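MOLECULE: protein
FOLLOWS: sequence and fold
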Amino acid sequence: MTDDRFYDRARTEIAINLLAPVHLTHLFTALSGLETIINVTSGLAFVPLTRVPVYSATKAFMRSFTLSLRQQLSPRAIEVIEVIPPALHTDLGGAGKHDGQPEVKAHLRLQPGTSGGEPTGDRGGLWADEWGLGYEGLRD
């Protein structure tokens, strides 16, 4: 908050993380063939990180929006999925910020029979972590 550019950066982050998905949802729900909406949130929606208050708040908003949207669109049989990716060791936000997190390749699906932990990409995506985070709202 003490940064002179805090407000400008916050406006940009809100536009990207909140306004854009809400706008796209509005546009997509007008389509007659829409079957699924997928929103990406974060574990920071549940436990905000003080050094990234706006990011945490936008992810909490998207979680609430997704839960409400799921109920609103259920009469139209539109599935609304929330993806909550686990924290991973990346340089997102700057080098060294996620050094204590698991490596990305530890969460990638692997081709049966391969060795060395090389992801195949044939089925893509990140697995949920050992606590079951990652995908919510999938139908049976």
